[in-house]
Amino acid sequence: MMHSNSLDNAPTQSLISVVNGILDESIERKKGEIPHRVVYLLRKVVQEIERRLYIQAEHIRSQNVIMKRREQKYCSKIKVLEMLVNGTNEENQMAINRLQIVKNEKSKIEERRKLSEQDVHRLMREKEHSENIIANLKKDIEAMNRLHEQQLEQTERKAKEMEEQLTTKVKEVEYLLLQSKKKVEEVETASRLKSQLWDKKEDNFQSHMDNQQLIIKDIRILSRSCENDMYALQMQWRNEISNLGSGLKCLVDAAENYHKVLAENQKLFNEVQELKGNIRVYCRVRPFLSGQDKKSTTIDYMGENGELLISNPFKQGKDGHRLFKFNKVFSPFASQAEVFSDIQPLIRSVLDGFNVCIFAYGQTGSGKTYTMSGPSTSKQDWGVNYRALNDLFDISLSRRNAFSYEVGVQMVEIYNEQVRDLLSNDIAQRRNAWDLEHFSTQWACCSRCKLALS
User: Which residues bind ATP (predicted)?
Assistant: First the structure.
């Protein structure tokens, strides 16, 4: 740190570096106090910078005045020389030379004047910069003073509380001392009457005084322990608050990682569905109806891997048996839940943004309506349509904190190569049939769901 007596000889750049160093130190301390010696040194440095700026400004002003006088003098000489131009050729040549010299000197003077003006602007900028530094220093000093005053008020408040506690304890001790004095007086009066019991009373009094002193010591120790406990509690609260902050940060990181893992799981799930096949064909064998002969079945074998062997009693040899291969074959005893279990993962792919189409194909009476809708409205007999919609709403409800879904349903009828909108409010539009050849492929299913993800 530079001494205050050596400020006059120190360069301006070193003074500015001193001010910046003090500012950096005050910023690092933050809540610390700035010593009076540092404040005094800052004031001296600022005064010295202002004095130097003022001296340089005065010097530049005097130089400008001198330059203007010289310029006026040279202008008068130029006028005289111009008047002498009408003389002889030799005099004209000499005048022209002198005029050229004067013009050169004038250009030099103008360059010096420009440099002086640049110096003035630079000094003004340095002065503004120093004034900003001074204002910032004043603000920092005021903030430090306010912080110091707050700390003083807190310490004074704590001191007053401790004084009140001590006064109450002193009053209690004085009260006990008054009681002990009364007892002493009683002992003295009793000693006058009964000299034999004097020693015993004196011993009792002395023991009582010792007990009172021990009580006072215990009270002091208790007050110190209370202060230590309060300090320990404060440190414990600070540690708990810091631990809570770190725990919250860990929770935030875990939430971010959860969203990343969730996105990766969705991607892997859909990749698994694509590996299983974008087009899957399942076969469900309808059980015999009442009144039908169960012995007239044409199914010889149903494999676990999707094999189905059909026999034709009207043909012999190899032509009498044909083997078909599906993704899976459901037996006549398969429930609605078992049929939907293989299709259920595709519902989740719908909510992940993939197009899915599920339809039943077969001749009349083969069980298409039974599989897609179900025989009744009970939850156990629900078909693929009801179960798919139920899963759509369940999954969208579970993702409501991360995604917002909009579900729309459209139902059309294809009959005799004509398409009708069964959910349209316009009766005329419902009756008017659309030509199936010009109908979009997206209406090829009997029912369709639209989902908008946001």
Answer: 362-369
